[in-house]
Design goal:
Number of helices: 18
Number of strands: 14
Distance between the termini: 27 Å
Structural class: alpha/beta
Shape: globular
Mean pLDDT: 91
Strand content: 15-25%
Largest sheet: 7 strands, parallel
Low-confidence stretches: none
CATH class of the largest domain: Alpha Beta
Strand order of the largest sheet: 3-2-1-4-5-6-7
Length: about 450
């Protein structure tokens, strides 16, 4: 009965959200491509490849999870080069990241919608040796069907947010059977483990491994070169200029940073501001908001590329009072390496949840964030204990901290050193997670599975 009720409610919710999906198609462009895969329908070439041999199915919801999945895939390939993967995602931006992660023997698809027919079609097509979910996304029909087929299920880097925990606990009778489908649940922290148990997960299948995000690898040299070219397009030279970078920003945060930068720039004209919105399709909206507030904005997509075509001799230099708005994808991580002070977005009210603060910290950068970092609760506890991050309650406090830190290079440096040490001391979850995955893969596969 519970699953009948779930399927009815899911159908109603999906129908209600369909206009939002259609709007995404129009805004993002790539959202429409491969849309039939969401219903478990694959083109003939993809269907042939999915059926040809067993592969480890790894699912990453969107960009952040896809980057983490890439870290896991690289380590698994290093340990066992014979492994091949089906990599699935939910969003078009996540798919763009995943396209760079798949190898020649891998297959990339969208995760099927959790309608019974869609799931049945997908599982008939995908020859899954095991399924690995990154962080948390529980789709009951998919997980229960995989369990019935005897496909091992693992959760990697599992977490239960402050917002989700009460709901999971209240609906324990619903989530408990879903969580029992997993062979192994790898939790980021003891708190996440306790919350999974409260939601009905079997305690003997949970291991606390820490966060794989601490095991982040530095970007390759070509990515750093590309980041330098991006800054050079706006006349920004790291080392000569002091760079304030807003990473993965959400509505309201760009203007707050611009005002803080303007106040700091009154003291030091060498200060430059770079903004990288979390969703590149907001670029026009952000540029319009900043322009209306009196700021000059240069969009990365409209700037010349010095690496491709150097500016002609005698051409005017870019205006140093201009904000660089990076409206392209895949550049943020390398840009963090070239910044002097970083603000991590989706943390100032009314935004909630937070984006990845480990990335800038891994470069030894001074990092500031707002009060809403619920998606990184365990990570933030690590940084707080090490005094490796600055938290501010609102935009006014952000302005004050930006002014203070930009005026004090020694404090920025000390904060960055503590951040780097905190990241290095927290590494190891990747090895523990891959140990668990390979352990499950080594188990005999049930007959007929």
């Amino acid at each position: 009965m519970r699953w009948f009720v779930y399927n009815v409610l899911f159908a109603v919710a999906y129908t209600a959200m369909l206009p939002k999906f259609l709007l995404r198609m129009r805004k993002r462009g790539g959202y429409r491509a491969h849309f039939a895969e969401r219903f478990g329908r694959y083109d003939p070439a993809t269907a042939r490849r999915l059926a040809e041999k067993p592969r480890v199915w790894v699912h990453a919801v969107s960009v952040g999870e896809a980057n983490l999945a890439g870290t896991v895939l690289r380590e698994l390939r290093r340990r066992d080069p014979s492994l091949s993967f089906v990599l699935s995602t939910t969003s078009s931006t996540g798919r763009a990241v995943c396209e760079k992660l798949v190898g020649p023997d891998d297959v990339l698809i969208y995760l099927p919608l959790d309608f019974p027919r869609c799931v049945r079609r997908a599982l008939a097509a995908v020859n899954a040796r095991a399924m690995v979910l990154v962080e948390s996304e529980l789709w009951p029909n998919l997980l229960r069907s995989l369990r019935r087929k005897g496909v091992p299920l693992l959760l990697v880097n599992g977490r239960v947010s402050d917002r989700s925990a009460p709901g999971y606990r209240r609906l324990r009778l619903f989530f408990g059977p879903v969580l029992h489908c997993f062979d192994v649940l790898l939790a980021q922290s003891a708190l996440d483990r306790d919350r999974l148990v409260d939601a009905g997960a079997p305690a003997d299948r949970i291991r606390v491994t820490g966060s794989v995000k601490f095991d982040i690898a530095p970007p390759p040299p070509e990515k750093l070169d590309r980041a330098r070219a991006t800054l050079a397009a706006a006349g920004i030279a790291p080392g000569r200029d002091t760079v304030l970078l807003g990473g993965s920003t959400w509505p309201g945060e760009e203007l707050a940073l611009a005002r803080a930068w303007k106040a700091a720039r009154a003291r030091d004209a060498s200060l430059r501001l770079v903004l990288v919105p979390r969703h590149f399709e907001r670029a026009a909206e952000v540029a319009a908001e900043l322009s209306a507030a009196g700021f000059r904005v240069l969009r990365r997509s409209e700037a010349p590329d010095p690496a491709a075509a150097p500016a002609p001799e005698g051409a005017p230099a870019p205006d140093p009072a201009t904000i660089l708005l990076v409206d392209t994808t895949g550049e943020l991580f390398a840009l963090y390496a070239l910044a002097d002070l970083v603000f991590v977005g989706k943390t100032l009210p009314p935004n909630e949840g937070g984006q990845n603060m480990i990335e800038p910290a891994s470069f030894g950068k001074a990092v500031v964030c707002g009060p809403h970092t619920e998606n990184f609760a365990a990570v933030m506890e690590t940084f707080r204990a090490a005094r490796a991050i600055v938290e501010v309650p609102d935009a006014d406090a952000l302005r004050a901290e930006v002014l203070r830190l930009l005026a004090d290079p020694e404090e920025r440096g000390a904060l960055g050193v503590r951040a780097d040490r905190a990241v290095n001391a927290s590494r190891g979850a990747l090895a523990r997670s891959c140990d668990a995955i390979l352990e499950v893969l080594a188990r005999p596969r049930p007959a007929g599975a």
